[in-house]
Amino acid sequence: MSWKLRAIRNKRSGFRSCRGWRSLSALRRNRRHNAARREGVRWALVGDSRLEEAPVSEDDHFNKELEQRRGRVHLTVKVCERAVVALLNDRETFRRFADAVNESAAVRQTWFPSIVARWYSQSMLIALRRLADADERTHSLRRLLEEMLAHPEAWSRDAMLQIWAADDQHKYPLDKLDLLLSGTYREFADKSGHMLNTERIRTDRNRLSKELDRVKTVVDKQIAHTERDWEPLELTFPELRSAVDVVHEMVKPYIALLTGAGFTDMTPTPQTRWWRIFDPWKSMSLFP
Fold first, then answer.
1. 269: number of CA atoms within 13 Å, CB side?
2. Angle, helices 112-131/58-102, rounded to nearest 10 degrees
3. Would 284 disulfide with which of 69, 91, 106, 223, CB 3.0-4.6 Å?
4. pTM
5. Do 64 and 51 share a structural domain?
6. Higher confidence at residue 57 or residue 76?
């Protein structure tokens, strides 16, 4: 692109200026900057019109990767938290529905309870399968454990104190945060008390895989797909409840460690007695 510089006289001061020079200068800087980015070199702007080359240090690369890794894990633990809360809420909702069905002989006569039970069980199994997903592209409890195992140095006690201090939800002085963290980190610390106990993480990962192995198999081979030459597996409702309890108890300490939020029970508390909608079922007459 060619640039024509036009001299414009200021009628009041007689000053002659060149319109277009500033745009040309910015264009040159952008071209040099883009070329530098392609070569993997960082350029630092010095003064108004001069550029100085500054190589990217290994520390800069490490800090950027560390920040991205921590951000990814923090997002994963929030996804897991929402998933477990949804599982517990759905389980409680189905329990209310089952109680209402058991109190109504008329409803038990129909096909409706079995249909809802199928919807519920398949939905719960798929949600549990997502939490056990080992695919690197996914947010899951399994991937959370794998990330922590791969980079235990990113979750040392000092690192966690920095993460908590940088989080806006922790509006405490550093000494109080350190005191709060000490109780939470003790469960994850090795013998030194300052580094992550990878054996603890590995044990949780193996337990998760073992407990949800049948769930994964049922979803992969009977719900998401229908495989030929496959003997169908059956999961009972007690087994389904047990699997939910496993992920519920397992995820709570990791939420506490990575976000500072402590839970004793993640089951949502109903704000209304919504299950009153089932009351008319009790007085329904049997179908002929």
1. 3
2. 160
3. 106
4. 0.75
5. no
6. 76
In angstroms, rounded to a whole number, what is the distance separating the alpha carbons of residues 272 and 100?
Answer: 17
Residue 34 has pLDDT above 70, yes or no: no
Q: In whole angstroms, give the CA distance from residue 27 to residue 93.
A: 62
pLDDT digits (tens, 9 = 90+) for 239-278: 999 999 999 999 999 999 998 888 889 999 999 999 999 9
- 162 lies in the same domain as 27: no
The residues, any chain, with a CB within 8 Å of residue 199's CB and separated by 6 or more, are none
Is the same domain home to 47 and 143? no
Same structural domain for residues 115 and 178?
yes
> Would 165 be classed as within a structural domain?
yes
Please give the Cα distance from 141 to 250 (Å, whole number).
9
Pairing of strands 42-46, 16-19: unpaired
Check whether residue 220 and residue 180 sit in a common domain.
yes
Number of independent structural domains in the chain: 2
- Out of 37, 56, 75, a domain closes at 56
> Each residue of 135-159: b (16+ CB within 10 Å) or e?
eeeebbbbbbbebbeeeeebbbbeb
* Helices 198-211/141-150 angle, 10° precision: 150
Whole-angstrom distance, CA of residue 241 vs CA of residue 88: 9
Instruction: Write the CB contacts of 35 (distance below 8 Å, at least 6 apart in sequence).
Output: none
In a domain, 1, yes or no: no
The answer to whether the beta carbons of residues 223 and 233 sit under 8 Å apart is no
Residue owning tokens 């800069």: 60
Same domain, 73 and 23: no
- Domain of residue 184, residue span: 60-283
Q: Which of 127, 84, 142 is nearest to 261 (CA)?
A: 84
d(CA 182, CA 19): 63
Contact 152, 195 (CB under 8 A): yes
What is the rounded distance in angstroms from the CA atom of residue 71 to the CA atom of residue 79?
12
